[in-house]
Amino acid sequence: MKQQICILGSTGSIGTQALDVIDQHPDLYEVYCLTANNRVKELAKQARKFRPAAVVIANEAHYKELCTLLEDLTDIKIYAGKEALDQIVEAGPIDMVLTAMVGFAGLSPTIHAIKARKKICLANKETLVVAGELICSLAQEYHVPILPVDSEHSAIFQSIVGEGDNTIEKILLTASGGPFRNHSLEQMKTVTAADALKHPTWEMGSKITIDSSSMMNKGFEVIEAKWLFGVPSEKIQVLVHPQSIVHSAVQFADGAVKAQLGVPDMRLPIQYAFSFPKRLPLNGDRLDLFKQPLEFFEPDLNKFKCLALAFESIRQGGNMPCIVNAANEIVNEGFRHGKCSFLGIGDVIEQTMQRATFDRSPDYDTYIQTDAEARRIATELMNK
Fold this sequence. Notes:
Layout: E1 3-8, H1 13-24, E2 29-36, H2 40-50, E3 54-57, H3 63-69, E4 77-80, H4 82-88, E5 96-99, H5 107-115, E6 119-122, H6 126-141, E7 146-148, H7 151-160, E8 168-175, H8 185-188, H9 193-196, H10 206-214, H11 216-229, E9 236-240, E10 246-252, E11 257-261, H12 267-275, H13 305-316, H14 320-336, H15 342-355, H16 364-382
Parallel strand pairs: 1-2, 1-5, 2-3, 3-4, 5-6, 6-7, 8-9
Antiparallel strand pairs: 8-10, 10-11
Helix pairs in contact: 2-3, 4-5, 5-6, 6-11, 6-14, 10-14, 11-13, 13-15, 14-15, 14-16, 15-16
C-alpha cells in the first residue's frame, strides 16, 4: 500500500522538494492533499501533475480562481479557508502530514493532525517554538510520532538513532552564519532585504532566509531542539559552520560526538522523515570532503541579538517564545518591505518581550491571545 501524504504548504521551498521526493518514489508514496495560502497558479499546476484527492487554498479570496483553473479535473475536491486546513488533515486515508507552512498558522492544523493520529513530518518550526509543551504532550497522549524535517534536527535525530537511553551531554547545532557573518555591527546598520535574501548556502523561502540572516532562525531551532529531544537549552551549543556540511551533531556522556554530514539538500531530511527507519535511494549531488575545509566559530551575540533573545525566551519559558515568534513575524515582513531596519528587528522584538503579557502556564487559548497581542505591540513599535 502506498503511503498517503498531505502536504501543508506545498508551493513553498519544502513543499516543492517534498513533491520531488514523492516523484522519485511513486511506488511508495502518493499525494492525498496539497495546500497553499496564496500561490493559486502553482497549486493548480501541482494538482494537475500529482492528482491529489483534495486541494485547499487557505486564502478564500483565491477559491474561485482555483476552481476555474481545475474545473476539468472533477475528481479533485477543492476547499478554501483556514478551517478547511484543520479538517483536511483529519481525513481517514492520510498516513502522514508534512507541515511545511510558515509561521504561527501551522499550529492549529498540526494539532488537528496529531489528534487524528497522523504521523507528523515537522518542517514548521514555529509550532514547537510557540507551543512546544502542548504539542509534545498531545503527541504523547495520542501516540503520534513527530519526525523532524529541519536539516539540523534531522541530523540530530539521525545521530541518536540506535543510541537508546544513552545520555546526551550536548547538542551541537550548526548554523551557516548567513550573509552577514563577517559584517561589522556598523556595516549591519545599512544592509537591505535584498542583501539579506542572498543566503550563501541554502535556497529557502524569503521569511526563513531573513530569519537566517538575523540568526533568529537558529534561535528558534534551539527551542525546537529542546522540545524534540528533551535537552535543556544550556546543553545546546550553536556553532557557526559556513560550509553547511555538518548539519548538526550530538555529544554523548563518554565524549563521543556523532554527526550527520551531507551536501545542502533539503530533500534528504524530507525523505528520511517519510521513510524512517529505512534509507531510500535519492538522486542528487554527493558530498566530496576533499573540496573544502570544515570550519566552526562561536556566534557573536552582540551582532546577532535575535539569537540572544531566543535563549532568553527559553529561560523565561511560558508564553515568552510565543511572544518572540509573533513579534518576529511582524518585523521580518516589515524589514522585507522597508518598514524596519535590519538591526531594528532585534530592537522591536526585545521591546515587545518587555511589554506583552507574560503567562508562565499558557494553554492553547493563551497562545492565540498572546500571538494577537504581541503582533499588535510589534506593529505599533515598528511604525513609530
